[in-house]
Amino acid sequence: MIAMKFGGSSVGSGERMVNVAKIIQSYISKKPVVVISALQGVTDTLLSLSDDFLHRRKEEGQKKLNQVGEKHFEIIREYIKDTKRASEIRKKIEELMTQLEEVAHGVYLLREFSPKSLALVSSFGERLSVPLLSGILQEMGTPAKDFDARQLVSTDDEFLSAGVDMKTTCSQFKKYVFPVWKKGVVPVITGFIGSCREGLTTTLGRGGSDYSGAIVGACFDAEEIWIWTDVSGIYSADPRIVPNAKGLSSVSYEEASEMSYFGAKVIHPKTMMPAVMKKIPIRIKNTFAPKDSGTLISKKTMTKGHPVQIVTAIKKLDLVSVQGSGMIGVPSISARIFSTVDRAKVHLFMYSQASSGYNMCLVTGNQESHRLKEMLECEFSHELKIGALDQIGILSSMSIVSVIGSGMRGTPGIAGAIFAALGDHSLNIMAIAQGSSQLNISMVIDESDADRAVKILHDAVILKHFENKVGS
Ligand code: ASP
Ligand code: MG
């Protein structure tokens, strides 16, 4: 059995859904279980219309709401010709749209949009897309049934990035989905969402449908998990920045986690967790070029002689620095810094500390850095007052450029090549981190230099090895 997840761009229109249905049909002997995202752009629209309602722009919000509904009704009109089926699906979409309108109205009245409400609003995208794909499959002669993952995926109540209870989830899948699938019906399940113990809607984080795909794969003990997207796998760098980037035929779970965490947008970082747990390979495939073999993510990595697989960049970051003579040799300072980060609910992309202990820098999203700075100032108000700490600083418009590959482990000279290449081009590095796993060297550099740095490093540490291999 194969778990197949199709992303928003793959199901972005009726025509694309038909293409997806054909792909599913061509692999019907693999007994697929399907997970899909919302139609392309719908989750973003749901968030923006809620923001309109929250900020009293009711008309604008209502307009967007109607557009969301129309996008789905149009697909029914054009692609579902069986009148009984069409009317059933229309009814489902109408009900969902009524509910969505009620929730949006609630946001308007209450003037609040908590993580709980945000999760509920965002869940509508997937709930609306699933009946359509299931209907199109049936229309094309393949028995299919839509499922709302809130009845299946059991999570904690971290509403916008929920943790999944795999044991309960798998038993729900066995109870509700398995019997349907066993009869030869293709289950089509909403990605991205789940529900917590109180029955409230949760989401697995933006882009989380990949993770849902892997959860399904793990519950079904799938042969493989296929993530269908709009590119033919993972590339050695973003091809929009580096046109001669190479397609990677295989990467290890560890490498894929690092890559996704450090900015390669092809797969959600959490996707690897259920797959590793059950040792299931993940394949990234392109819905627009289904014959391409894509990238295989498994225990193994690509050929030897490729110490580095990929160069990535994350942008829109700020660097918050804490420094002062009062930090030297005082371990409690680090503990207090991290507990402040935790209280501020800020995501740390990277941190590094000078060995003197005089300075610690924390890299966060640019939306969060000021909140962290203020909370650190509050936590260390005494130290700041007596001069034990200097002002807490922020360097804005930063990026992290990462060089990733498990072959770097124990291969000397990579760090030298990286820094020499950047130095030759006069690119300044603000901070550096290398985990002891030696899989990743990350550097904080000015955002305006990020693309140039990616190109330079790609030439210096990836292309060089490809050329050496070809030449050898
Ligand atoms: N629809 C959700 C999002 O846009 C989940 C996903 O696409 O994976 O984030
Ligand atoms: Mg998506």
Spatial sequence of strands, sheet with the most strands: 3-5-2-1-8-10-11-9
What ligand molecules are bound, each kind once? aspartic acid, magnesium ion
CATH class categorisation of the largest domain? Alpha Beta
CATH superfamily of the largest domain: Acetylglutamate kinase-like
> Compute the gyration radius: what is it?
24 Å
Query: Could you list the spans in which at least 5 consecutive residues all have pLDDT below 50?
Result: none
- End-to-end C-alpha gap: 41 Å
Q: Which class of secondary structure composition applies to the elements?
A: alpha/beta
CATH architecture of the largest domain: 3-Layer(aba) Sandwich
How many helical elements? 14
What general form does the structure show? Answer: globular
Number of strands: 17
CATH-assigned fold name of the largest domain:
Carbamate kinase
Share of helix, binned:
40-55%
Overall tally of domains: 2
Biggest β-sheet: count, sense, barrel? 8 strands, mixed
Give the overall pLDDT as a whole number: 94
- Strand content is 15-25%
